[in-house]
Write a structure and sequence with these properties.
Immunoglobulin-like, globular, binds fe (ii) ion, mainly beta, about 5% helix
């Protein structure tokens, strides 16, 4: 039996999967690499080149944060629910951090599972 973390598709396995030759699944993260402590900044998560139909689409995007030095991680940050055809397959979250760490985006395709990407954030 696989652990849950083993059934999440990461950028490291993306190219090895046959489905990746037909359509993109890995969420892209658009964010500054360096932010100021306590100042809100935008995190845009999006999936390009993927169908957006009732039969096949991304249904949600979630954002988590792994905070350096924290005893228990990750911290849940936000979630966006997506409606096929009406919602574009993207979400922009406004986030405030006090410590450096890693933002993790998860996105769920109803046919192809949960896909992950991550971005290192330095808080100054
Ligand atoms: Fe898909």
């Amino acid at each position: 039996m696989k652990k849950f973390g083993e059934i999440i598709y990461t950028p490291e396995v993306e190219d090895k999967l046959a489905i990746s030759k037909r359509e993109n699944h890995t969420p892209r993260i658009e964010v500054q690499k360096e932010v100021k402590a306590g100042e809100a900044f935008a995190v845009r998560v999006f999936i390009q080149g993927h169908p957006n139909t009732v039969q096949h689409s991304f249904r949600w995007i979630e954002l988590y944060f792994y905070e350096e030095g924290r005893d228990f991680n990750p911290i849940f940050v936000a979630r966006a629910e997506l409606t096929p055809e009406i919602s574009e397959q993207e979400a922009t979250f406004k986030v405030k951090l006090s410590k450096s760490g890693v933002l993790y985006a998860l996105a769920y395709c109803n046919l192809h599972g949960v896909w992950e990407n991550r971005a290192q954030i330095k808080v100054v």
